[in-house]
Amino acid sequence: MSSRDRLVWPLGLAALLALMISGSLALLAIASANPDPRVVDDAWSAEKRLHADLRADRRAREAGLTLALEAVRVDGGVEVEARLVDASGRARHADRVEVRRERPAEGGLDGEFVLDARDGAHRGAIPLPRPGRWVLVARAQAGDLVASRRVALFVP
Predict the structure, then answer these.
(1) Is-contact 134 76, C-beta < 8 A?
(2) Rounded to an integer, what distance in angstroms lies between the CA atom of residue 47 and that of residue 149?
(3) What is the pLDDT of residue 133?
(4) Torsion of CA 83, 112, 48, 117, to 10 degrees
(5) 43-155: which CATH topology?
(6) What count of other Cβ atoms lies within 10 Å of the Cβ of residue 137?
(7) Burial level of 122, CB count in 10 A (0-12/13-18/19+)?
(8) Stated pTM of the model
(9) How far is CA 90 from CA 62, 117, 155, in A?
């Protein structure tokens, strides 16, 4: 067995180790360039808020409240109209309606918008800066009740 044959496996092992280290550094660079908005600094408080929102949403469903959401495409985004309605279909007053814009395929483009109350509904323009799939998550608050709705959009 020559000295060259004895060096093959340590060199292969070193190359494999170098490949693993470079792969880890590449994943670190990608992860730091595209932060996930669901990762928060204070997970304890975020979980408490999440459970409070889920309880308020359940109480709204038990009270028969739903959020009617309509999105009409316009240049550069969508016009959103949200109405809080009860089980009989009558409009109910919402104290505040927020819409969160999410881009599932790409980080850094998510945003939150508050809709303006006009003519018994809440309306607002939501910009969609790039073509592709977007998700709008609307949340209407009426007192201690919260009704929410998710809508997926595709912008060509």
Answers:
(1) no
(2) 20
(3) 92
(4) -30
(5) Immunoglobulin-like (2.60.40)
(6) 16
(7) buried
(8) 0.70
(9) 16, 17, 32
